[in-house]
Amino acid sequence: MQQKLTQYLWVWLLWLAGFYAVWLYLVIGLGYWPEAKAHWPIAVAMAIGSYAAGSTPMGGGTVGFPVLVLLFELPATLGRDFSFAVQAIGMTSASIFILARRQPVAWAMLKGAMLGSLIGTPLGIWFIAPYIPGLWIKLVFAVVWASFGLLHLYRLNEIAGHTGMTEFNERWDFKVGCWIGLLSGAAVASVTGVGIDMVLYTALVLLCRTDLKIAIPTSVIIMAFTSVLGVIVKNLTTGMQPGVFENWLAAAPVVALGAPLGVFIVALIGRKPTLLVVALLCVLQFVWTMHCEQASLGVTGILLSTLAIGACLLGFEHLRRWGAKLVGERNAALVHTSTTTSQPAVKELSAS
Questions:
Q1: Is 74 left (phi over 0), alpha (psi -120 to 50) or beta?
Q2: What residue intervals traverse the membrane (predicted)?
């Protein structure tokens, strides 16, 4: 394994060299250093966010979005576009590192999700995201991440206990991945800048009972793909929000190393402690959002947001039960096949 890592690590190092060459040209050659220096707080925040991006199924925007929107009180649309931009560097860097390490990935479902995202994310950017008010963007983020955090707080031992992956068949995995990429790319990633990785991860661990060592790298790669796609689509069509570039200049050199570092460190300390901390942060950001927006939401809005979390959790439980049913059916079919194929051999042995 060490030999394979050494053999392919040059690809990641080449990527890093290319990125930092471009970044240095921007800040020194084109004189953008004052802008990068002025936005140093987001670089500090993304030092934590990039670690989470590489070690959990949550993109760096999981930290970047609430910091910009809730702490710095910037527009939610800026937080969304910044998430795309910073993850296009951090998650891509982590993905190249993952592939260089030859880590196992759920390829069939990942390929399907990439195809679905290729269609769903641009459609969401053009036809859904422009019509979502800033408050609703905050609420979608808060509800989805809080429900994801609560799922891990009460199912973490079960999720962390999976080994390998239940493979039904590649065509089935590919189709499921397509629907995940299409729907979550259009309805979640295009609105908040993050989330498609969490949806794919949830399907892998609840539906396919996938090992975290497979599910998390797969989620990192789909978020990298969707982020790069989002940046390309927005730059070519709708344009990025003002302020994204300056914050990106400050954060990009941090996440380029931070996300791969998360991939490496979590292999040493285990994923459960990191997932537990991030799950708590997901719940706390919901409480923070409700506190900051209580004047706009009122009691009714806060209650509806809480009920939305309950609906998400019910959806997770339904997915988990469906996964259990599929695994049971698959195991029964395997037993039946094994029994059927062994019968002729028994008869032949008896005859002899």
A1: beta
A2: 12-33, 39-72, 84-100, 106-128, 135-154, 174-207, 214-236, 248-268, 275-291, 297-316
Cα separation, 57 vs 220, in Å, equals 6
Domain ranges in the chain are 2-328
Six-digit token string for 33: 């250093």
Residue 23, CB half-sphere, CA atoms under 13 Å: how many?
22
Q: What is the pLDDT of residues 194-222, one digit of tens each?
A: 999 999 999 999 999 998 889 989 999 99
Q: For the chain, give me the number of helices (H) and strands (E)?
A: 14, 0
pTM of the model: 0.89
> What are the structure tokens assigned to 336, written together?
């039946």
* Pick from 88, 106, 92: nearest CA to 165: 106
Q: What is the pLDDT of residue 278?
A: 82
Asked if 26 and 248 touch (Cβ cutoff 8 Å), the reply is: no
Q: Which amino acid is at 4?
A: K
